[in-house]
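In this supplementary section we document a worked example of the pipeline. Step one takes a protein sequence of length 633 as its only input; no multiple sequence alignment statistics are reported here. Step two produces a three-dimensional model, which step three serialises into structure tokens for compact storage. The input and output of this example are shown verbatim.
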Amino acid sequence: MILLQVICTIWTCLFIPLLNAEEFVPKVTETLSEYSFSLKSFDDSNSLIRLDNRVVWMSFDSGENWEAVKEIEGHIVELTVDPLHGQDRAFASVFLSPKFYVTDDHGKSWRALTIPISENCRLGTTCSIATHPTEKKYLIVDCPCFITDNSFFQIQNEIYFTNDGESFYKIEPSLKKKEDDHITSSSCNFVKSSKDSDIEGNDASILCLFSNHGYDSDRHLSAAYTQLALSTDGGKTFKKFDEFNDKVIYQYKILKSHIIVSTQDDRYNEMSPMDIWISNDASTFQKARLPAQVRHVHMYGIYEDSIGRIIIPISTIFTDEKNDQPAPSEILISDSQGLKFLPVEWTINPHFGYIDIASPHFLEGTIIGSFHPSFDYSHNKGKYNKKIARDETKISVDNGLTWSNLKVVDEENADSFPCDITRPERCSLQNPFYSIKISNPTAGIMLMTGSVGDGSEFEWEDQKTFISRDGGLTWRFVHNSSGLYATGDLGNIIVYIPYDPNEDGDFQSEFYYSLDQGRTWKEYELTNALSSVDPYKLINPTPDGSGSKFILSGVFATTDSETNSITSLKGVEYIIDFSAAFDSRTCEEEDFEDWDLADGKCVNGAKYKYRRRKQDAQCLVKKAFKDLSLDET
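The serialised model returned by step three reads:
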């Protein structure tokens, strides 16, 4: 009798929760609209903002109910949640107008602001807004103006500043325009780029780049004049930097501890040598020491790691007629002062093309790099154009010191791949896109679209979806298609929807979800056999990844049963709610485990770990709006 009771107790504890999990179906709420153009979420809030057919709508319950914002009038074309004050502030821009609306209470109330642009300024797009990390009333607004002058289409932008959040004044460029300058441009940013900025300067300090460009009759660049200037009074007066006299400033970037400026020596030659300059105080610049000369490169994705080093991806995509062997694309990492750069030995593939890097802020020391070869068709000379390059995707978990391929560990599906996955140096996961998409913050749980191989071949139909539970070191196949994905409850809920609803052989659409960190998946049919959804956005409306609700936006198509032709198209949004999963059980201490970053190795002289839910635990963490807590040992 006692044995029977024990057996029953074991069956009750182990199998009933599993049955409940299998029986669980998320709550899905469908909302059809004429056209849903943009959907944004506020940080640490259930408030959402949506643009639907030029009208702004608000939801204060994670998208289940919506109401139009009556205070906002006009043709709204763009919504922006303030990246520095995402908990409460957003902007709504009016089409081809210097007018925009702002909310400072996550959408409860709105007020209108109008920029006093010049009479001859004809806007071709909306004005962009830069905000200050600590002084919310400080704004920089950039309004692009279009002017037709003879046969040239001139572009001039006007920049405005406010220190009270209401009244704006124009920032006059300190670089004067010449008669033969066809394009004049300005860009200004606050010297303080984050709340923890180490760069000296008062709150009104801004850095501006003023540029004038002239073109010949064939519309080729004839001359370029630039000036970098610092203002400590909100753009009323400027001090230029003499270091850049007779140089063309290519771009600048303000980071937490450094300001980076790239220059070219010859204003008449786009292929002239380039230099990188560094400032730690916004007052003086020093030329950085580079391992090799660079010419006409792209430096997108510059960022600063947690110990103050600057990481610059150098994408060499053009060469000149005299140079058959241009410097290869590479990743440069500086010392802590930012003045000496060394190349990262991350690939043995010395070609030129595009490099993209992603460094998830929640994975200390992790960098994912992706290289895509580019062929320069601007010149027909040179042996270099005939070389064959290949894609490469690699990962570093020690801030770029060592790199490895994205290893596929999937014995169950090993025979489905075109190469031997036990040899990752020749057979690994390759990211096909020019930007690497990182999902919401999790304790090492990530998804990626890609194909398995050595990067020498690419076919869109070969793209599949993979998952990692160790911060990107190893990957496993989960879906035989590419699509949208998002995570919730800090990685314990995963939602995936294929781009193509026909990928499983039928017209109707479905999404897939996992409640055990990607080990198993269940299917949810969204539509019937005569309709489908073309998805274009899937988000967890809590940007910190803690929430258990998801929002899927797309285009809802209905077809005729006889002709199979599309009869109607509408915008559609689905609210997918997992809060009742596992009978609404909240995880307890025994449901958690330690997970070590970087496979337990030291990063910057320390080891890091997260407490995360065990993969098979029958519960949700349910700590909405609470960020992941990283422990240092």
